[in-house]
Amino acid sequence: MRKVLFTPSRLRKVGTLAVLSVCLSASLTWAQTKTMVMASTTSTEQSGLFSFLLPEFKKFSGIDIKVVAVGTGQAIDMGRRGDADLLFVHDQVAEEKVVAEGHVLKRFPVMYNDFVLAGPTKDPAQVKGKDVLQAFKKLNAMNADFVSRGDKSGTNAAELRYWKNADVETPAGKPGFVNYKACGCGMGQALNMAASTGSYVLVDRGSWLAFKNRADLTILVEGDKRLFNQYGVMAVNPAMHPQAKLALAQQFVDWITSPVGQDVIASYKINGQQLFFPNAAP
């Protein structure tokens, strides 16, 4: 048998080939792993929608999406900093502002549901009905216990808008009555706080349907057209944030607004109830 002599020169060649092999393997692995970051809301994440939706998108595209679930205001700020590749949020005024600033590209409507006002079954403030502004006026007049997310989320923005339109003074961005509790938290935590204290709370219907720890809470106000809750999706602009993965983000935008993605949204239900209703422009 012929002996192979490993001279210094040969060893250098073997070492170089080994390094090249490792680098090639790493490059192939990187190429096969496509990932991006989506900044979205706790309402979409805690409703269970993404656990249902994103595996379907991965089957279609091979792309993994890491969701950072925060309030809409925080999600939009992530887009402003370039800390995400994609935004999926629900505060149209704030969304249009960040588009105008140039941090994200075109906003696409994706789906909607509605907000509801939940509260204790006995309804001590007597708010039950369909008029959300009258309900908020009664909450203020009765000094009712109310839990606010207080986190600059889309839900929090809607709540503050209802107080303002109900002519309730909102110094420092919150109503003046004593029993207003701003938790600075996500929708699930706000619901848990309201359930444990018998307080009123504004919640999107998707989160309400997914919430199991309701205690004595029930829906008291629904059906007002002002409770409409629209969601939009936007890719972060690589012209302002070069690290943004536009090609991957655009694949999601195209898919979620296509008939296939819209059908996936429509098919997500809890106990037979649909949580979100697709309405992307044809």
UniProtKB/TrEMBL annotation:
Q: Where is the PBP domain?
A: 30-259
Q: Does the keyword Signal apply?
A: yes
The organism's superkingdom is given as: Bacteria
Report keywords, A-Z: Signal
Entry-linked InterPro entries = ABC-Tungstate_binding (IPR052738), PBP_domain (IPR024370)
Alphabetical list of Pfam families matching this protein: PBP_like_2
Residues spanning the signal sequence: 1-31
SUPFAM superfamilies for this protein: Periplasmic binding protein-like II
Q: What is the protein's name according to its record?
A: Tungstate-binding protein TupA
Q: Which organism does this record belong to?
A: Polaromonas vacuolata
The beginning of the lineage is:
Bacteria, Pseudomonadati, Pseudomonadota, Betaproteobacteria, Burkholderiales
